[in-house]
Amino acid sequence: MNTSAQFRNKVAEGYSKQPIADEAAYQKKLQVTRAYFKPSMKVLEFGCGTGSTAIAHAPYVQHIRAIDFSSNMIEIARAKANAQNVQNVTYEQASIDEMNVPNST
Predict the structure, then answer these.
(1) In terms of pTM, does the model score above 0.85?
(2) Check: CATH 3.40.50.150 for 3-16+38-93?
(3) 71: left (phi over 0), alpha (psi -120 to 50) or beta
(4) In this structure, what are the phi and psi dihedrals at residue 42, rounded to the nearest 5 degrees?
(5) HEC string of the chain?
(6) Where are the domains of the chain?
(7) What is the pLDDT along the chain (105 residues), one digit of tens a residue?
(8) Distance from C-alpha of 29 to C-alpha of 90, rounded to nearest angstrom
């Protein structure tokens, strides 16, 4: 495990409990992003952290594949999604350069 992943694993629990620093700006970013979504879309989010953004976007797309290199962040994200009964988000522990992407034709 690289040092960045070790650090993110170490801070995951505390990070998940921190409030968003600028809630109004975050909500505006969600709104702007959603304007691009279509119900049939499959979305990739890399660096998903504790999963809150993927959960917020889940109602607007078909599926979200969310990855983070921190296994602890992914564990928290999965627990949040389960608690909110979000079923169209898949969380995976992986870095962007090692994730497996099937060929599509």
Answers:
(1) yes
(2) yes
(3) alpha
(4) -110, 125
(5) CCHHHHHHHHHHHHHHHCCCCCHHHHHHHHHHHHCCCCCCCEEEEECCCCCHHHHHHHHHCCEEEEEECCHHHHHHHHHHHHHCCCCCEEEEECCCCCCCCCCCC
(6) 3-16+38-93
(7) 678 888 888 888 888 889 999 999 999 999 999 999 999 999 999 999 999 999 999 999 999 999 999 999 999 999 999 999 999 999 999 988 887 777 765
(8) 22
